[in-house]
Amino acid sequence: MRGLLTGAALGVAAVAALAGILIALPWETDVTFGMDRNTTHDEDPYESNSDISSRHTRESFFFPCNGVRCHAWLYLPRCTPRDALGVASDEPTGDGNAPLLTRGPMAPPPVVLMAHGMGGTKDHKLDHIGAEIADAGYAALLFDYRFWGGSDGLPRHVLSPKAQLEDYEAAVQHVKASGGLGRKCDPDRVVLWGTSYSGGHSLVTAAKMGANISAVIAMVSAPAVRTHVTSVLEAGGTKNLILCRIVWEYLNYAPLDSVEKVKVPTLLIAGLQDDLTPAAGIQAAAERMTDAKYIPLDGTHISLYGNAGLVPAMVGFLKDRVPLRSGTVA
What we know:
Layout: H1 2-24, H2 29-32, H3 50-53, E1 56-65, E2 68-77, E3 79-81, H4 82-85, E4 100-102, E5 111-115, H5 127-135, E6 139-143, H6 161-177, H7 179-183, E7 190-195, H8 197-209, E8 215-219, H9 247-251, E9 266-271, H10 279-287, E10 292-297, H11 310-321
Parallel strand pairs: 5-6, 5-7, 7-8, 8-9, 9-10
Antiparallel strand pairs: 1-2, 2-6, 3-4
């Protein structure tokens, strides 16, 4: 018995010693110290294309979350497609797109709040989606989480589900408290959008905020983050770095456990060749929900962003469940 106790004590001592060594190691010197905030992509890359930029504008701003500023881009339509309002027209546009209706007495559009997945920032594959959503007549607000991209906060590259959920809620609250950013969008019609890791955030936030949310769009969402391991390519402000101290919080985050609590219209999009977040798991999640539409598209976890049918599927869902309105609002 004494030998067993001695062995157990030695085991505990060894684990404690290893933990002490790991704590003492300078794991995070490359990603912890110093501000690395990236706003170099504040100019709209679509402004160089007159056919596209004539259909939307983009502006930059910050909103607060727990005393730290989150950096955001707001895409707004310059005009509204007639087909989005159900108005028939044979007027030519000259660019092959749907005829346009200048704003006039238009109600502020619904706003789609968008943030990236694990380690991603808004300039990495999201800007073209936000621009195309605005071209369809909706507002799109893309933001970086605290500690990432163009947002403030130290240490950098903190991948905390709890903090990122707070950022989503702060974005919703800012839109509502500001009266739709000064009536640029409708504060009563907020759509949450997420991809991969943030697809789970959008579902968890919608479950929590209830009637404050009008709809959810989530693509390639992980059934449980415990099975979701990915790497993020460097692009613009995106860096393939994650602060390692958050591993336990990350591993115990299972956002699709909340799907039954989401009561608003939800679009779940899966990539048929996605090995990280298999389509079968996403389809199963849709079947557990009260008002969900499941759309599988060709693509892997990454190549799906380039699928020509991706944004049209999102816009079609928006037109059906959160339609644009003509006329002014009080």
